[in-house]
Amino acid sequence: MSTLLRLATAGSVDDGKSTLVGRLLHDCKAILADQIAHVKTVSEARGGDFDFALLTDGLRAEREQGITIDVAYRYFATEKRSFILADCPGHVQYTRNTVTGASTADVVIILVDARHGVLEQTRRHLAVAGLLRVPHVVLAVNKIDLVGYDEAVFTKIAKDVGEVADQLGIADLQAIPVSALVGDNVVEHSADTSWYDGPTLLEVLENANGRTDTSNQPLRFPVQYVIRPQTEEYRDYRGYTGTVASGTVTVGDPVIVLPAGRRTSIAGIDRPVVTATSTAVVERPSAIAGEAVTVRLADDIDVARGSVIVAAEHSPGTRRELAATISWLSDRPLTVGARVLIKHTTTTAQAIVTKITGALDLDTLGVIDAAELDLNDIGKVQLKIAAPLAADPYSSNAITGSFLLIDAHDGWTLAAGMIDDEEGELL
Amino acid sequence: MTAPVINTVTELDALESESIFVFREVAAEFERPVILFSGGKDSIVMLHLARKAFSPAGVPFTLLHVDTGHNFPEVLAYRDAVVEQLGLRLEVAKVEDYIADGRLRERTDGTRNQLQTIPLLDAINAHRFDAVFGGGRRDEERARAKERIFSLRDEFGQWDPRNQRPELWSLYNGRHRPGEHVRVFPLSNWTELDIWNYIEREQIPLPSIYYAHERDVFERDGMLLAVGPYSQPRDGETVARRTVRYRTVGDMSCTGAVASGATSAAEVVIEVAASEITERGATRADDRASEAAMEDRKREGYF
Ligand SMILES: Nc1nc2c(ncn2[C@@H]2O[C@H](COP(=O)(O)OP(=O)(O)OP(=O)(O)O)[C@@H](O)[C@H]2O)c(=O)[nH]1
Ligand SMILES: [Mg+2]
């Protein structure tokens, strides 16, 4: 639908993610004079060279500690396309923020320090990327300047990461030797890596496919909010607002409204027309995945926030029990029997964790038995839910297949969840 | 910067849809949302998007203006006209009231952007607003670059950037305890260029100060400040009549103008795309105060 590409960085602490992001922005001429001047002043005050990481490490604590704590978003464009860049932290304590940054990414750039090779955090972030089904993963073997531009080091790390990626089901992995500090193979090809004849990082990013277009898939339309203007002009108007999660909605389409299961058809799709003084709508014939619209239905049936309008021929049905893979984001461990809230599309309901089936072991990448899930664990659980959900497997629909678990007491987001498909494979 | 103007219509459509989604989530999940409306371009775009989100019904939110008392008259006139035309409810929290009764003291430099925090937080408490829409964009400033779209504030209105809630996909979690509130930033992913492309595409009217006009200005800290009731040239600062426009509007005493001949949104788009300096770098003295000026203000509860 658009040429926009969303990137996120990942990898272990100090592998050079922020430096790489700064370098990329700098070499794409996406940094303006006052920002450069600011980084120069701050770098000099600390008695060091120009520190590219300061372009994204904007918090006081980040600058004091020299690490990234939370995601920084940057926006830039080249001749070819525009980018939203999420620079994520590497420190294990802030993994939840890296999951945040990666959840909306089309491409994850995993960095590995050429001197250190694959670390536990590299494996964890690869697992997160695999679990989230991020379409492309780029491996940047960084600090290649510090290993004398040695091809053997690059090849070894590319092979190690390739094996992990295979096990995690990451199909699309592109390895590049880079030096974020010097700029090798970031935007310009490096003369010091003559043994590497692949693309630069920017070339990979400019040519990567963006978000998968889901407008050919079955319609899913979670209702957000019901509009009833009750004005003279729109006296009997009743519009159901939402963003098309997948598929295409067309006037006349037969649909089912879940969870009730009532059949009806699309009577109209409205597009807002707003001028300085008037607020109105005009009809449009159809809308595709990603568009925020208002639909009207042919029959006067009970539809509210939490209803999902689906293609009549391809209804997912509803369920009150789910098997899912979750990334646990809370300091308090998850135990069987925990009562939580589940937020799934526009429904929030009570849920109970009935079973912890297992947890991902980062060393073997296999599933092991687990009595509880701790902070940053990836595990498999079963849930019983107080309301029927119109859910799909995450592998077929990232929107109707994903959910949050929330602490009902303090509101904290406890987990990111992805609904398993029939095979129930972990990743 | 040589970045070309490549924002296609479909990219603006995607941004628009994302923002509309956010407005609808808030309308459905909160009881007393409010839009911070200053009459600046970002809040104007925000209101336009909110109107689209609920059309053909009206916007189900109140507006809140935190008034520094150092306003551009054109902006106040614009604010009042919009409220009148659309039949909206406007609350105004005045910094002047706080200075008058001693709850706040005028700063030595005379600027009032920083003084807005307490009136803002008091208004949020008094009206029990639970969701507060701000027009902040992540591309504006390095602390803003770290914001969630739904950003929790504690009982004291404070932001804790070291301990933000995870925010996954577009599943926005607005749960909060009594006394806490959520700041919501529907324009998070818009850039200054996107805003101007959108203003031009949608033909959104703006206060006239956003376009080139003649004004008596003097130079201070590399900015062009208007001669007016709140800012006067000091010794050695010379006044000249120049053709300028504003890239942001804030406290008139510390918001700078830029030399510009752009008289339409289309011309501003070209100018912004070619600009060598960021919007805040060009126009906000208050952000230059220290390395983490914005972060510090945001922690205390600022916009
Ligand atoms: N020699 C060399 N040093 C590098 C390179 N990339 C980064 N560094 C240095 O490595 C250190 C860590 O860099 P950062 O960019 O802050 O690392 P990070 O991955 O963002 O760290 P976290 O975000 O905290 O996980 C800094 O001192 C950088 O200057 C490189 O390619 N070569
Ligand atoms: Mg970093």
UniProtKB/TrEMBL annotation, chain A:
<dbReference type="InterPro" id="IPR011779">
    <property type="entry name" value="SO4_adenylTrfase_lsu"/>
</dbReference>
<dbReference type="InterPro" id="IPR044139">
    <property type="entry name" value="CysN_NoDQ_III"/>
</dbReference>
<keyword id="KW-0548">Nucleotidyltransferase</keyword>
<dbReference type="GO" id="GO:0005524">
    <property type="term" value="F:ATP binding"/>
</dbReference>
<dbReference type="InterPro" id="IPR027417">
    <property type="entry name" value="P-loop_NTPase"/>
</dbReference>
<dbReference type="InterPro" id="IPR009000">
    <property type="entry name" value="Transl_B-barrel_sf"/>
</dbReference>
<keyword id="KW-0067">ATP-binding</keyword>
<dbReference type="GO" id="GO:0005525">
    <property type="term" value="F:GTP binding"/>
</dbReference>
<keyword id="KW-0342">GTP-binding</keyword>
<protein>
    <recommendedName>
        <fullName>sulfate adenylyltransferase</fullName>
        <ecNumber>2.7.7.4</ecNumber>
    </recommendedName>
</protein>
<feature type="domain" description="Tr-type G">
    <location>
        <begin position="2"/>
        <end position="214"/>
    </location>
</feature>
<dbReference type="GO" id="GO:0004781">
    <property type="term" value="F:sulfate adenylyltransferase (ATP) activity"/>
</dbReference>
<keyword id="KW-0547">Nucleotide-binding</keyword>
<dbReference type="InterPro" id="IPR044138">
    <property type="entry name" value="CysN_II"/>
</dbReference>
<dbReference type="GO" id="GO:0006790">
    <property type="term" value="P:sulfur compound metabolic process"/>
</dbReference>
<dbReference type="InterPro" id="IPR050100">
    <property type="entry name" value="TRAFAC_GTPase_members"/>
</dbReference>
<keyword id="KW-0808">Transferase</keyword>
<dbReference type="InterPro" id="IPR041757">
    <property type="entry name" value="CysN_GTP-bd"/>
</dbReference>
<dbReference type="Pfam" id="PF22594">
    <property type="entry name" value="GTP-eEF1A_C"/>
</dbReference>
<dbReference type="InterPro" id="IPR031157">
    <property type="entry name" value="G_TR_CS"/>
</dbReference>
<dbReference type="InterPro" id="IPR000795">
    <property type="entry name" value="T_Tr_GTP-bd_dom"/>
</dbReference>
<dbReference type="InterPro" id="IPR009001">
    <property type="entry name" value="Transl_elong_EF1A/Init_IF2_C"/>
</dbReference>
<dbReference type="InterPro" id="IPR054696">
    <property type="entry name" value="GTP-eEF1A_C"/>
</dbReference>
<dbReference type="GO" id="GO:0003924">
    <property type="term" value="F:GTPase activity"/>
</dbReference>
<dbReference type="Pfam" id="PF00009">
    <property type="entry name" value="GTP_EFTU"/>
</dbReference>
